[in-house]
Amino acid sequence: MKASAVLLLLTAVSGQAQYDLVLKGGHVIDPGNAIDRQMDVAITGDKIAAVAPEINASDAKKLVDVHGLYVTPGLVDIHTHLFYTTGAAGAWAGDLGVQPDAFSFRTGVTTMVDAGSSGWRGFETFKFFVIDRAKTRVLAFINISGLGMVTDAAEQEPSEMQPELVAQMAKKHRDVIVGVKTAHYQKPDWTSVDRAIEAGKLAGIPVMVDFGWFLPERPYWQLVTERLRPGDITTHCFRAPVPWVDENGRLYDYLRRARARGVIFDVGHGGGSFVFRNAVPAVAQGFYPDSISTDLHGASMNAGMMDMPTTMSKFLAMGEPLVEVIRESTINPAKEIQHPELGHLTVGAAADVAVWNLRTGDFGFIDAAGGKFSGKQLLECEMTLRDGQVAWDRNGLAGTDYRKLGPAYGVRDVERIVPPPR
User: In the chain, what are the domains?
Assistant: First the structure.
């Protein structure tokens, strides 16, 4: 008899609950498994144990009623800046970095990918102080520049761009380094891009390009149609200088040719890298982004970007179906970073789950340059589970009425409660 059958038999005989937690009655959207309907989700330990139309409530140690809500895999945000511990003033790897656990779970995000804040010189410091200490799953693109994003000056210096050293570090930490990043390059040549691609080839990982300064000597269309490899990522794809539509409002053909080559178009909203002027016609003409990401940092989170749910809601407002927005925030980015085990609710997968309230009303959204677009729907995260544990619970869905918990609940040492004399 198989081990799973034995477990089911023992459960039935003992009368013990089969699952640690069951999310009951929610509308599950799991594009990785082509699920878009009401389903129950069961979790045992840190794994998804079952996804089915009806799971018996008696099989759950804890039952959470999520009727009227959406249930999705935990979000995968592949463009964030989390190296907040350097103390560098005004730097992406410094004061502008965000402590991951302080922001992730409340927004439905269970996996954050730092986008090149650290380079080959400082990655292990970043790993020790941030990655290894976070409850959020933190992965990273390593910057082609040795000093990373402590200062823009380092990202202009060719001597800091050492593909062999980058690849060596990436191979050493293959469990957390998912790609190579180049960003903020200001010179009229392809040095930064070319060396990042060389490092990516040596390490067998993709490259993410923040194109920096847009210059006529190295046009954007050439980056995506000639330079980048299949699987490489152009982030900030809706940035204002990117040419999207011609004088008649039609999408330029080079965009579809680039996608046909396998180039990935990532949002990377940020504080200055997303305008509705580009995104609205792209969505209207069926050119959706491959992945939605925030470019989270201390400035963007307090400006028009705000957070992952708000960024996703912008695409709902522009006309994308909800299932596609979820796809671009879960399974797509997981595959882009070569971690296909993430971003879905397959039985046996990590129990990273987000529960959503899709609010209806009149909502206004701001892009990175003050442009406004209105919408009728807004995603709001109700609950996040990381490895099966409740990490965020906005409205106490998993809570128990305090009147049912007894007079001493919450007290560590009951015998130490000393009432005053009468």
Answer: 73-380 (3.20.20.140)
